[in-house]
TrEMBL record, chains A, B:
Coiled-coil segments on the chain, per record: none
Keyword set includes Protein transport: no
Gene3D superfamilies assigned: 3.30.70.260, CBS-domain, MgtE N-terminal domain-like, SLC41 divalent cation transporters, integral membrane domain
Membrane topology designation: Multi-pass membrane protein
Source species: Pyrodictium abyssi
Cross-referenced SMART domains: CBS, MgtE_N
Similarity annotation: Belongs to the SLC41A transporter family.
ACT domain: residues covered: 6-81
Record-given protein name: Magnesium transporter MgtE
TM spans (from-to): 434-455, 467-488, 500-524
Lineage: Archaea, Thermoproteota, Thermoprotei, Desulfurococcales, Pyrodictiaceae
C-alpha cells in the first residue's frame, strides 16, 4: 500500500527538472498529489507530496539517480519528519502556503508551522485561509493560540473561528483571555454566537463543555418519515441519531438512523426510541463521562439538566482522546512536572525552567530534612564510615517500592476497580499491600544481608542494620505509596500529583531515621 | 437527575417489608428498577436497584426511618461500591444472579463477581446466561478468563463466545491457550468461525486485530437505492457506512448513510464515494492506528492489503480505549512494574510479588555498584562524616531531574511531536535540554551552596563540592533522562520501560562518582 510522503528536491536549476521528476515518479508507480517549486539564484527547489509504494530511502535514491549526484533529495513520511521538510520549503517562500494548505491536513500543517522561526510563522498565520486557520487554532496549545491571537486582528480571528462547529469554536474561545473572548463573540455570526454562549456556561472539562448541541431533535409524536426528512435537509454535527423529547423538552430517548431505515415511515418516534442506558448532567467531569462511555460501550450519551430536559449529546468522538490526555497528564505529574500547557517544541527554555523548578525546590526543601537527620548521626558515621555506602541502596529501594505501590493504586483507582470511598476497599488495599511488602521486604532483606556481609568483610551487626532497615523501609514505603493516592482522591486532588517524587522524598526521611537509628543502636551498641 | 443506586436492606423478617419499602421509594420519587429478596432464619434481605434523585446517604436514612433502627440499610452507586453490595447479596444465594443479570450491565456484574470468593464465582459462571457470560469473557483480564475457561466445559464456552461479534470473539479467543482456542473454534457456528479464522491471522495489537469485518460492501456500479436496501436488510456491526470496492475488491471509498439519504436513489455509489483520507495495512500497530484516527479526526479507517484490496474497517469505537490503555501501561512501567496482565483485585499476593520483584532486584544489583563506589571513599567519609549527609540530597535531585526530562520526552514522542528518527529533532532536544539543565543546575547549585554552608558551619570547600556536584549532576541526569527514551524507541523498545527507576539508578552511579571524587579532591586537598 502507498504511504504519503513529502519529498524535497534541491538541484541546480535546469529546464525540464519538474517534468523529468514527475515522469520518473510515474514510472515508479508513485502517485503525485501535488508539486510546487521555486528557484533561488541558480538552485531550484521542488516540493512533492506523493503516495509512494516505495520506502522514503529508496525513493530518495531513485530520484537522485535520475537527477544526478548534485541534487539533494530528501523524502519523509508526514508527521514530525515530513513537517521538517515542509518547514524548510516554506521558510524561503511563505506565500506558497496557500497552494499547499489544500493538500495538507491541519495537524501536518501545524507541525510544519511550529518548526519555523516565530516571525515567519506569524506571517503565515496572516496568509492562511480562514478554514485552515480555524482548524489550526483548534489544534494549537495555549501558547501557540496566544501567538496567533496576537498576530491577527479580531475580524480575521472571528472569521477563522466561524468556520468551526459550535463546540469546537467554544474550545478555542475558552483558551483565549476573557476580554478577547467577549470581543470575538460579538463578531461571530448569529446562530453560532447563540450556541457558543450557551456552551460557554460550562467549564471545558465537563460533559457540558464537550457536548454537541447541533443534534436533530424531534418530539415523540413525530414520525419516522419526518425524522428521515430532517436528517436529509438539516445540517447537524450528529447525523446518525435523532433525539426524541417529550413535554417541556424532557429526554425520551434516542433513535438511530438504522432503526429509522428499518421502520415503517408512519411509525411514531416515541414507540421507537430506546431509553438511553445512561445520561449525565452537564457538570459531570469529562473524564468520568469518557470512562462511563467506554465502560458501558455507549456511542452517544445524552446530557440533561436536573429536570431531565435534553441539553446536548456527547459523542464517542468527543471523548476518544480525553482518557489518553488525562493519562499523559498523569505521566507528567508522576515525573514531577506541572500539567503541560504547551508542546515541547513550542516551550521556551524559560517555560521549561518555570514548569520544572517548583517541584525540584519543594523536593529540595524536604530533602534538607533528611540531610539534617543524617547530620545528627555525624559521630556514628565518623566511627563506621561504611554505613554511608548503603544509604543510596536503602533509599532507592524504598523509593522504588513506594512508586510501584503508587502506580498500582493509581491505576486501580483510575480504572474504577477500587473506590477511595469504600471502607472495604481501603482495608483490602492496606492488608494486601502489607502482605506483599512483607514478602518483598524479606526477600530484599535476605539478599541485602548477604551483600552487606561481603562489602563489610563480615560485620554482622552492620549487615543486620542494613537488612532490618530494608525490611522496615519496604513495609513503610509500600503503605505510604499505596495510601497517598487514596488520600489524595478523598481530598479531591489528582492521585498522580501527590505521588512520584513526593513518595520518594517522604520515604527518604523515614529511611534516614530508621537506618541511622538502627545502626547507632546495633552497631555502636555492639562495640 | 436520577442516579442508579444499589440498595441492600437487612432487616428482621416481617410481612409487608418489601411493599413498605417500595411504597416509601414511590413517595420519595425514587424509580424502582428491580427488587429481589430472600430470608435467612429470621432476617430478610432485600436488594433494590433504583434510579434515585436522592444521594445514597439520604436514601439510607429515609429507608431506615421507615423500617426501624434494627434494619441495616446500605446504598451505593453502581461501580466499585455498588459491586460490593451486589456481591454480598449474591454470596448467600448465587442462584438469584439470573434474576439480576437482566438489570445489570456486564461491567457491573463482573465487578460484583470479582468481589466474591473463588468457589462462589466459579459456581456463578455456570449459572449465567450465554449472553452475560460472553460479555464478561470479553471484559475479563487474562487471569479471570483462565478461571472461566477452567470452570466450564467447551460447549458452554463456545455458546457464550458465539453471542459476540466476530472481532470481539477473536479478542477472547486470542487470550486463551492455543489448544483450547482450536477446540472452541471447531464448535463455533459456521459464519462466525470463518470470520474468526480470518481475523485470527493478525496479532491482537494490530489494525487487522482490531478491525471489524462485518461491514456492508458494494461495488462502484451499484446504486444508492441498493445501498439503502442493504442497510435495511443486512445485519452488520457497522451500520452507518457503506464500503465501495472496484475490480478485484480494491477499495474505492466510503459512503456514509447521511450521504445516501441526501442522494437520489439511482445515483451510482462510485460517484458518491469519498476517497478515504487514509488507509492502513493490517500489520500496522493499533496504537499508531488510534493516534492517526484522532490526529486526522477519522471515524472509520479502512484496512487494505498491499494491493489495496479491502479487508475491514477500524471504527473509532474500536480504538477509543487503546491510547488510554497504552498510557496506563506507561504509568505502570514508569513506576517500575511489568505490564499489568490482570486487575489489582484479582491478582494474588504472589502475582504481585512476581510482577514487582524483578525490577527491584535489577535496581538492587545496579545500586550495589553505587555502594562499592562509596566504599572506595571510606577513608574520605571517615575524615569528613558530614559528606554523607548530602548524599540523599544530590542523588534525589539527580533522580528527579532525570525523570522530569524522561517524562517530557516520552510525552513528546508519544504525541508525535518529535521523531526518534529525525537527526534535527535529536540535536534540538539535546541542545534544549542542555540549556534548560544549565539554568536549573545553576539555580540548584546556588541554593545548595547556601544550604551546605549553614549545615557545615561555613566549610567553603565542602559546600563548593556540593554545589558543583549539583550542577554537574543536573546536566548529566537531564541528558541521560532525555536521551534514554529516544534510544529505546530507536531500538524498538517502549520508552517508558527503560525510564523511571532505571534513569534514577544510572544517575545514582554518576552522582556517587562525581560527588565523592570532587569531595576527595576539593575538601581533602584543601586540608
Amino acid at each position: 500500500m502507498a504511504t504519503r510522503l513529502v519529498v524535497l528536491v534541491d538541484a541546480p536549476d535546469r529546464p525540464g527538472l519538474l517534468s523529468e521528476t514527475t515522469g520518473l515518479l510515474h514510472r515508479l508507480g508513485v502517485n503525485l498529489v501535488t508539486s510546487l517549486g521555486y528557484a533561488v539564484e541558480d538552485r531550484a527547489r521542488l516540493l512533492l507530496i506523493v503516495d509512494s509504494p516505495l520506502e522514503p530511502g529508496e525513493l530518495e535514491e531513485r530520484i537522485t539517480g535520475q537527477l544526478g549526484e548534485d541534487a539533494e533529495v530528501r523524502a519523509a513520511p508526514l508527521g514530525p519528519q515530513g513537517a521538517e521538510l515542509l518547514a524548510e520549503f516554506l521558510l524561503d517562500k511563505p506565500g506558497l502556503v496557500n497552494l499547499l494548505e489544500v493538500y495538507l491536513e491541519p495537524p501536518d500543517l501545524l507541525d510544519a508551522l511550529l518548526r519555523l522561526p516565530g516571525d515567519v510563522r506569524r506571517r503565515l498565520y496572516r496568509i492562511l485561509s480562514a478554514q485552515s486557520l480555524g482548524r489550526i487554532m483548534l489544534l494549537a496549545d495555549e501558547a501557540t493560540l496566544r501567538e496567533i491571537a496576537g498576530s491577527l486582528d479580531p475580524d480575521h480571528l472571528a472569521k477563522a473561528i466561524a468556520t468551526l462547529d459550535p463546540d469546537e469554536a467554544v474550545d478555542v474561545l475558552q483558551k483565549l483571555p476573557e476580554k478577547l473572548r467577549r470581543l470575538l463573540l460579538g463578531r461571530l455570526p448569529d446562530p453560532l454566537r447563540r450556541e457558543a454562549l450557551q456552551l460557554l456556561r460550562y467549564p471545558p472539562d465537563t460533559a457540558g463543555g464537550v457536548m454537541t448541541t447541533s443534534v436533530p431533535v424531534l418530539r415523540a409524536s413525530d414520525t419516522v418519515q419526518q425524522a428521515l426528512q430532517l436528517l436529509r435537509s438539516g445540517d447537524y454535527d450528529v447525523r446518525d441519531t435523532i433525539v426524541v423529547v417529550g413535554d417541556g423538552g424532557r429526554l425520551v430517548g434516542l433513535v438511530t438512523v438504522d432503526q429509522l431505515l428499518r421502520a415503517s415511515p408512519g411509525e411514531r418516534l416515541g414507540r421507537l426510541a430506546a431509553r438511553p442506558r445512561a445520561a449525565v448532567e452537564p457538570e459531570v467531569d469529562r473524564e468520568e463521562v469518557a470512562r462511563m462511555m467506554l465502560r458501558y460501550d455507549i456511542n452517544r450519551l445524552p446530557v440533561v439538566d436536573r429536570e431531565g430536559r435534553f441539553l446536548g449529546l456527547v459523542t464517542i468522538e468527543d471523548v476518544a482522546d480525553v482518557l489518553a490526555e488525562e493519562a499523559a497528564e498523569d505521566i507528567a505529574l508522576l515525573g514531577g512536572l506541572e500539567k503541560p500547557r504547551e508542546r515541547y517544541l513550542k516551550a521556551s527554555i524559560l517555560d521549561l525552567f518555570k514548569s520544572r523548578i517548583p517541584w525540584l525546590l519543594l523536593i529540595y526543601a524536604i530533602e534538607s530534612v533528611t540531610a539534617n537527620i543524617i547530620k545528627g548521626y555525624e559521630d556514628v558515621i565518623q566511627r563506621i564510615a561504611l554505613l554511608a555506602a548503603f544509604i543510596p541502596l536503602v533509599m532507592d529501594t524504598g523509593g522504588n517500592v513506594g512508586s510501584q505501590a503508587s502506580s498500582m493504586i493509581i491505576r486501580a483507582l483510575a480504572l474504577g476497580e477500587i473506590s477511595e470511598r469504600s471502607r472495604h476497599d481501603i482495608v483490602y488495599v492496606f492488608l494486601k499491600e502489607l502482605a506483599t511488602a512483607a514478602l518483598i521486604g524479606s526477600t530484599l532483606a535476605a539478599i541485602g544481608f548477604g551483600f552487606a556481609m561481603v562489602l563489610s568483610d563480615g560485620d554482622v551487626m552492620l549487615s543486620l542494620s542494613v537488612a532490618l532497615t530494608l525490611l522496615i523501609v519496604t513495609l513503610l514505603a509500600d503503605i505510604i505509596g499505596a495510601t497517598l493516592p487514596i488520600v489524595a482522591r478523598r481530598l479531591g486532588a489528582d492521585p498522580a500529583a501527590v505521588s512520584g517524587p513526593l513518595v520518594t522524598t517522604i520515604v527518604d526521611i523515614s529511611v534516614a531515621l530508621v537506618y541511622m537509628g538502627l545502626a547507632a543502636h546495633l552497631v555502636l551498641g555492639a562495640r
